[in-house]
Fold these 4 entries.
Entry 1:
Amino acid sequence: MNKKHILITGGAGFIGSHVVRRFVKSYPEYNIINLDKLTYAGNLANLRDIENAANYRFVKGDICDASFLQELFSTYHFDGVIHLAAESHVDRSISNPMEFIMTNVVGTVNLLNAARESWSRLLSGGDFENKRFYHISTDEVYGSLGETGFFTEDTKYDPHSPYSASKASSDHMVRAYHDTYGLPVVISNCSNNYGSFHFPEKLIPLAINNICNNKPVPVYGKGENIRDWLFVEDHAVAIDVIYHYGKNGETYNIGGHNEWKNIDLIQLLCKILDRKLGRPEGTSAQLITYVKDRAGHDLRYAIDSSKLQRELGWKPSLQFEEGLEKTVDWYLANKKWMDEVTSGEYQNYYQNQYDLR
Ligand code: NAD
Ligand code: TYD
């Protein structure tokens, strides 16, 4: 029997590496092709444990390169695409929005075109049966909540940052390809993730790294903004479930009903690290430093994931305190990973190894 070929884009990044690992380990009957440009956020060290697996292959490439994508699709005849490649950091989108438009919008449309062309050619007349294009998105497309309420799949899009606006545009294009060309798409919008292999420009790994190194922990504004945190491995399970059982044309919200004010979360991290590093309680909290607020800073995100729970039976497996302890333990045990990432060493090494094109 021919193995199915699944393309995962952005598989060397934070969430993508967890998704690649899950699919490689759980589905020996698939060939997993990980396509990643290896930007500053892409790190093949995130995948060392599975890099030699028989059903795994890494391809370095850019989703903004349409002809490269066409070639890739004609080589592998993909059965499915799980699209995570993106520029993902709000602060970077404020200083350089164009990169976000290129990768998140143009790159996504290139992928949609490559899938549509390849599948129409294979299945004359564009019968897309058994194919699937799964687009991974964020709850940030819905904008900002006040004190109460939750984002549902019917919440009107109202993005504020260049990052969330670029993700909203890509979501609309994915839906347009479904409605116009009948492409079999599914979309999920997830809340903030945390866990291992998270690039230390994002709040949780940045705070852990700074606390460990006795450096100031920057809190934007008053620290009163609220995020809804989900353990990354629970997100990977949700992606697996939606890829296999989600309905074409549908959107699923993913989240853990786990809202934290930034300042409370940072205080909790300080407490956990005081205990783990053997510091007197209250030591790490002295590193908290209030800094200028982020421009256009969304106040509150909170996801209602009841559709996914009801229709596909997914629910988060971990309580936040447990997940956070596990995450802190991982960073303490993987200091070398953090040192390499913060020094940029991994990029030099892997760029040299894979700069084949
Ligand atoms: P990340 O920044 O850690 O990883 C992104 C990956 O995409 C990197 O490996 C990078 O090298 C690759 N990439 C970037 N531009 C590329 C290009 N032009 N061509 C090919 N590869 C490219 O991001 P993440 O946090 O893992 O997020 C993954 C996806 O999930 C994104 O689409 C993001 O919008 C979405 N998402 C993230 C979160 C979160 O909390 N991190 C929450 C919800 C949704
Ligand atoms: P971040 O991890 O960048 O995710 P996002 O902006 O996509 O939600 O930020 C999470 C929250 O933490 C957000 O409200 C901004 C805030 N924040 C800080 O207070 N200090 C920091 O150094 C960073 C990176 C974020």
Entry 2:
Amino acid sequence: MSFSPIISFENITKKFPVRKGFKVQYVHAVRDVSLDVFPGEIISIVGESGCGKTTLLRLLSRIYVEDEGKIVYGSEIVPKKFKRKEELEFRRKVQMIFQDPFSSLNPVKKVHQILGRPLELQKLNNIDERIYEALEEVELTPPKNFINKYPHELSGGERQRVVIARAIITKPSVILADEPTSMLDVSIRAGIMKLMLKIRDDFNTTYLHVTHDLAAARYISDRVAVMYAGMLLEECTADDIVLEPLHPYTQLLRKAAPDPDRLVSEKLGYTGEVPNLITPPKGCPFEPRCKYAMKKCKNFVPPYFRVNKRKVKCFLYEKNN
Ligand code: SF4
């Protein structure tokens, strides 16, 4: 793995306005997030719904634009507004897999048209050959059995394979995968994750993968970043998050995850709700729920502390530094 990141989020902040009568308030969706992603790496961003993880992906894909900070791809800052040529080039290199294969495919287009469209936009040649290659790569074989089908003629798993084929057809360096298995039957999730791993191995593709499923994150990722209330609270390896979670919120996520070896559910030991992101806590975002909270946690956002090779945003680890 290269030591220069392919993507860097640097102190990214994103707020969304919400109107209440004449008053405009702001939802603080992403707050001062920094994260490096290395070529060929699969990094999962895990957290509860509404924690800001999908917003982070959408910022990189330029569905949204950050208010503060910058996103670097390779050695270039990703512009907030693309010129047409820049946009085409960026979209060729950075592709997205959406959560819902049912709504992310045009129902009135056949697979051949769906896969051919990005190639036409990029003005690439050998369209049929590339479509066949992509279908073979996602194991929809023989391709001739699939190219003339409409999305409604495919199963959920086949549809998600078409979505993945569309994402890889321009040979991107980076794939942004937004909960790619959460809408699929449990029985076909493992097949899709194995396919994502195979694509990484075949093309050295980098994945930024968003999920709320710790088991999926552990299965597919090299590293995991835990997000809560718009902030990244812990970065560690995929095994660490399950075997030795450090941040109190990561410990809560671990305890709340279903575990077939643990038939009696553990007491979570935490109460309270995710904070309101219109008025987020001034200090540590987890302070209102944290059983270890100290006086300073209420007033100060903890910096990252290093614990071996891990990064933890919690004052409990201050003594390690
Ligand atoms: Fe708990 Fe304080 Fe650590 Fe936040 S910084 S998780 S409140 S101990």
Entry 3:
Amino acid sequence: MKRILVSIITFSIFIIKLSAQFHQEPLPYEFGALEPFIDKETMEIHYTKHHAGYIKNLNDALKSANQSEITDLDAIFEHISQFNTTIRNNAGGHYNHTFFWNILTPKIDGTPAPQLLQAIEKTYGSMADFKILFLKEGMKIFGSGWLWLVVTPDKNVVITTTRNQDNPLMADATIKGVPILAIDSWEHAYYLKYQNRRTDYLEAIWHVINWEKVSELYLDAITQ
Ligand code: MN3
């Protein structure tokens, strides 16, 4: 009886450990759904190889660091200095990509909710000026990184960029804030279709931004 009980407990711990692993959510649309703005092959490689790779590496790195009990990415970002670079890069990679898939949509040419539009106009004058500046900031990223629109603690919307797989939730971010929009500016996000033409990619991606989702994130962030 005792042995059975021990087996049950051991098995339960095993299950808990398994469930503590990070997983990849299904992509909310088909790989080819964002064509012609983002091509099917790029999406497929990006989701099945790059993003899946970050998750595997994150789980492996947490395990080797004896930090497998961590199940919350926010907890990693808030205490980022307590984690090694592999965990930092891959936790960021997992969060950033999950976020990115969800702010894209096959329903093209959406528009932001009035409240978000007003917030963008408050900081940047107009939507057109915001888009120009956003593109400029995206072009300034040297090497690999991300382009963001965040809600800062004083509830303003601000453009920021991060290097590698860092994000504005990390405790040591230059501009901290709640992300509401993110563009992957790594070459792997656009190279197959756009090669070195990052400008073309950053201009094309506006067509597939899920403004409904971005607006929802904005409204959540200002009421937090
Ligand atoms: Mn990527």
Entry 4:
Amino acid sequence: MAAESDPSARLAIALDTDDVDEAMQWARAVKGMFGIAKVGLQLFSAYGPDALEPLMRLGFKIFLDLKLHDIPVTVEKSAKVISKLGVAYMTVHAAGGVDMVKAAASGLNEGAASANISSPQLLGVTILTSVPMASSADLSARISILIEAGADGLVCAPTDLIRINSLVPGFVKVVPGIRRLEDSLGDQARVSSPDEALAAGADILVIGRPITASPDPRRAAEEFFSIVKNRSN
Ligand code: C5P
């Protein structure tokens, strides 16, 4: 993916909460700087599609991060439903295999066609950033699955980028596990600073607790925004 020149298109806020009011407060705090709102299992389990509409109204693209991993037919049918919600990105686990990722792609296409909207980009999670080690063999195997199945991009740890860039030139590379020096790791094991991740080839940075656990989320967002802006110039 050619790096977007609009820095906000490269920043996703992870809205990891089960309280939609809290999610909206965070979203308002980063509005204009972060263009993508990532809704994960926690918020979606609490509110379902109702969690998405107010975020869309605020102008966010939605990254629905449900990390699907099931038998292909279940994934296909779920992807078809998800696609009709008008989200911009959705995730599956690459570990689900070629047939499962292909099923997700066809479900997304079917759903989007029936709703007459564009299909979400399908992202494959390679190896979670909370896993301490990612072997090159495991990474390559997951990437082969995503390429063969026709995914649009992947989610990987920033520290894995250097090993995968040459394998996936056309993929959107979405990267969580972003920490400044002052941020605590939380449960993330393989992290990088935003500058390092961008230099290593990240297209979209996913940032959660460094903003949502900050006493001043807007100020924290401004810092990330200016780092991405400087890199995009
Ligand atoms: O709070 P933090 O910045 O660690 O948030 C990272 C977000 O990225 C979480 O919502 C997590 O589910 C997600 N994620 C991840 N590692 C992956 C894929 C997604 O941490 N490989």
